[in-house]
Amino acid sequence: MGRVNYGMVMAAYWLARMKMNKSPNRLVLLSLLAVFGMCVTALSVASDKIKIEGQRKGISAALIDQGDYYNLPNGQAIRFFRKKDIYVVTKKATNANRGIATMQRYKAQFGDRVEIVTGHQLGGLDVVRINNQPLANAKRSFNITPHMLKSLDSSTQSIMPVFTTEHGQADLLLLPKVTIELNSTANDASALAKLSQKYGLSLVRKLKLSANVYSMAFNNSRIDPSRQFSKVRQIGRESFVEWAEPQFYVKPIKQEFTPNDSLIGQQWNLIDPGFRGSRCDTDCDANNAWDIGNVDGVGAVTGSGMVIAVVDDGVELDHPDLIDNIW
Fold first, then answer.
1. CA distance 6 to 36
2. From CA 89, how far away is CA 159, in angstroms rounded?
3. Is residue 268 within 8 Å of 282, Cβ to Cβ?
4. For the chain, which terminal residue's Cβ has fewer other Cβ atoms within 10 angstroms, N or C?
5. 215 burial via Cβ count (<10 Å: 0-12, 13-18, 19+)
6. Mean pLDDT over residues 68-80, rounded?
7. What secondary structure does DSSP assign to 170-217, as a single string?
């Protein structure tokens, strides 16, 4: 359902008031009002687009291209950009709960030049922004580096850059892992042994329901990101490898699909927020099914081609949702 647009309402109101008067001055005013209404509509739509894009982009930051990419089997390059001065602080397994103490140390040492970032798309991970802008009235200034942050706390495993896609639509943490599909003619055991020795990898597991797709981890868990991308590209060019892709960590973004049915608020069996005093969520969670694949309309679940048998005591044959589909 679209929202009320007050620019168009105003234009419609004055059009109705003056429809009987066709003087040149009134006609000019009518034209201006119509243009005003359309402008408000355009601004309103643009505002919505900005809000949606902002949600997708996650952390707001300048993007830096350091040549980080991997190749698809057809040779297409999938590029990634780093978010300037944005880093993920990962903890050693035995110190996973010391994030708050680490952030306090950063504040004590660097003050407001190290900012804790919230509202990112990396779940419960600690994310910081380094401010290396020159300080006002400062006699001496220095740049804060990720190495300086790491050296402050022995519980820190690594300080890693935050990546995003070339469209800037996610906050991504590059994991020291690679997913590899071997080609159908490869001897899996021999191929995995070669990869392990040549690229410093260890087998993590074989992916379920796959014939020859494996997850492997770099033995150096703090491998430089650019070097990791380079190794992934080299792995993908091996004669016995079908494709190779780096692995990322990202928290899934919840995007709720809202149907355009004006009566959706009364259909408690589909979505029940407590309709007419009923117990909240006593429904079939249909909205969760609608959300599947419904990002930007790509791969949306439409039910096209599905046949549903209605087992009930009656059907409203001329119902708007059924009249063109029932047989």
1. 10
2. 5
3. yes
4. C
5. middle
6. 94
7. --EEEEEEEEEEE-TTS-HHHHHHHHHHHHTEEEEEEPTT-SSEEEEE
